[in-house]
Amino acid sequence: MRPGGTLTLVGAGDADNLDPALSVHTATRGVLRAYTRQLVTYRAGRDQRAAGEVVADMATELPTRSNGRLDATGQEYVFTIRPGVRWDDHRPVTAADLARGIKRLAHPDAPSPSLTYFARTIRGLARLRDELAALDPTEVSTAIECRALDGIEVMGTDTLVLRTLGHSVDFLNILALPAASPAPIEYSGFLPGSDDIIRRLRSTGPYAVREYVPGKQLVLGRNPAWDPATDPVRAAHLDEVSVRMGVDEAEAFRLVDTGEVDMLWDIQPMTAELPRLFGDPRLEVHPAGLLSPYLAVNMVSPNEDRATSKVEVRRAVSVALDREAVSRVWGGPRLSELAWRVLPPLCSAHTPVAPVPPGSPTGDPDAARALLAEAGYPDGLTLRLLHRDRDIHPESVHEIGIALARAGIRVEPVPVSITDLFATYFASPEPAVRGDWDLAFTGWEPDWHGDNARTYLQPLFESRPEGSWNLGFYASPRVDRLLAEGRDALDRDTANAAYRAVEAEVLRDMAVVPVLFAHQYWFHSPRVRGWEPYPVLNGDLTNVWLEP
């Protein structure tokens, strides 16, 4: 192993947001691993059983009853920051920084996509969210800084006490999310994710953002204040990480294929290139529990007399879908499995017996037409299908359009950049309410492995979404009640029983249309070594090294 050098990645899009409170894009989260730290985290590796095991990061140790840092009720956690953990300007990271990082997730003008996890778990955070929403905008920053919460207590400079609403079996997993990163005092007064924050980005990891030109370039350099003795999971072999953005996909692939750059970043090899890469060590495949792709269904669209609000129409889309054709675009059975359900095989709540019977792999247009007629559309209808304009997404949507047309569902593609997809179409309800889209071709990756049914179901299906990923505004009181039962369960078996009931309910409602369970795969040059999957966050840049 030879330390040093610059790892160069190349991709088509941009980072969705470099503020860890706002980032949801997989490629961006892989970069966040390099310059953010949390109280707890995961080790990179290929062992699926170990992938979901939480380990201490900035904290000296995990709270347990045996070490006295978890109380008898299982609802009070005490964390102490390791000595020597510092910001990149050499100031110590404090408990107040950690508290600020969690409270700012509830900012009413830029709520975190992860807020639903934290607000449903930490005492007082949901109330803070509601109080902030009622304040004059000029008062929000002061309230975030000064309001006391029963669930967040700062003790001195290095100790933080967190209290949960109940016995949350996955609280440590939530605290391992990038959204739980500390926030320095200079973030106070600025909107999360804004240009003001990006200009003030501070680092706690081995790297820091040295240059960022939106849509063109992102450069990470070494953080001089990072002490490897304080970091049990990041090795930081590289001197620098450079991400080239806005590159045509074919050109990006050529650059990696010829060894001119090191690795694809936010795109994958096009379908035509995959057959010759199978068995090539430059293509690394990692079986993963991804609900990706799926079709989000806009329940509030006014189009076609509110067609997508009718369950028969939603079922017709699923019945008509040619999943095998989409799978071929995504690399075939080596890289994906056909999906008619939400919880994939790697989720501990997955059961061999599907909640709903699988349909025809190539679609059943006659059955779909019958469902449309039942819904009042005997002559078919037109639906607007939102999708990314790069990578394998346009080709996938083309195949979907062919299949749905056989059933009388005409597809009007709405191609947009990945930046617009997140920042415009998914960031607010207005595009959905206007009917700018009826279906969205997208994907969901769980926020942790193993015992993670909550990470598929709560963000996608809970009513009254608070910075969640309930893109179609699905609402079901029964689903909300079952999700609460899962969150409040005292043991994993009880939680999983509730989550299986949620899955069955949302599939009966066809709240989304599952398409595939895709595997993760990466394409890189031969000189990239030590690339290890970091749970669903696009691999761990901090343990890579380069051969000459």
Automatic annotation (TrEMBL):
> What is this protein's name?
ABC transporter substrate-binding protein
**What InterPro entries does its record include?**
Peptide/Ni-bd (IPR030678), SBP_5 (IPR039424), SBP_5_dom (IPR000914)
Describe the family membership recorded for this protein in Swiss-Prot or TrEMBL. Answer: Belongs to the bacterial solute-binding protein 5 family.
* Signal is among the record's keywords: yes
Can you cite an annotated GO cellular component? Answer: cell envelope
What is a biological process (GO) this protein takes part in? peptide transport
Q: Which domain of life is it from?
A: Bacteria
Residue ranges of every copy of the Solute-binding protein family domain listed in the record:
56-453
Q: Name one Pfam family in it.
A: SBP_bac_5
Location relative to the cell: Cell envelope
Q: Print the keywords alphabetically.
A: Signal, Transport
Q: Provide any one GO MF term from the record.
A: peptide transmembrane transporter activity
Q: Does the record bear Signal in its keywords?
A: yes
